[in-house]
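Example pasted here:
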Amino acid sequence: MSAERFFCADAARARGDALPGTAPYGLVWVLLEHHAPWPANGYDGLPLDPVAQSLLFEAARAVRARILLIRRHGRRAPRPGPRRWAVLRYDATGAHRQQWGTWERDEDLARIADVLEAPGEPGETGHPPVVLVCTHGRHDTCCAVRGRPVAGALSERWPDLVWECTHVGGDRFAANVLVAPDGVYYGGLDAASSVTVVDQHLAGRVHAAHLRGYTDLFPAQQAAVAAVLARYGPAARHAYTVAGTTRAGPHWLIRLTGPAPSTTPYDVEVTAHRTPPRQLTCNGLATSAAMLHEVTRVERGRVHHD
């Protein structure tokens, strides 16, 4: 008799794996529309002209950008005509930038590389964010099983904002949603909760529930923000500012201020430790330890007036 099939997201939920502090760092994202089946390793596995492919890869690596393949929900077969691309840039002021274009030939990827290498911060501000749902089944089964219902529910509500995308990290937290260029990761979603979470996000209210973290922060800082949101209620993406971070071994003290324009301080103690080795993905049979950032204290300080 064969062993029962392993699903990493089921196992993570059964263990109660913590979401806060698990968002990968990122300030720039390159989106590349691609309708044909996605290779397991995403952009790297596409059968593109090697020179053009390498040009974009190197430009993205230079600015630590992540290249994600995207497609609209339900569209599996290749379609004729140009495909869309985008460069999304996070900005700490909240004036996030987006630049969109189209590509038909592999050589067109050079245009995206030029955008990444351009001095300054090219792109337009004021656009609504892009909602990316990981449905990369060839990378991890749970991403498809849990991601596609979420992509369907969100696409029905916000058809112009939502795209399916390749691997964004954290397979065991599927379904994963990345809101970019805001730089916010949500995980552990289903069709119903994803609509609630995205609706609140678009209304300027980030909730602690399902929040993995902000991509401009270190994991301990992400956990601190999530803890303050959980205790004091949802707030806008840029409501809290990290005013100080000190570390002594595995222990962190994070000082936050906000919500803006307030300067109320919050001191959050976070302890980092590794979990026992576990199988963390559906396809990777090897076990590995995950880093957990546990919040041990949240305290609101006093505002000092001169």
In short: The chain has one domain: 1-216. Residues 1-216 form a domain with the Glutaredoxin fold (CATH 3.40.30.10). The CA atoms of residues 180 and 260 lie 21 Å apart. The longest helix spans residues 141-157.
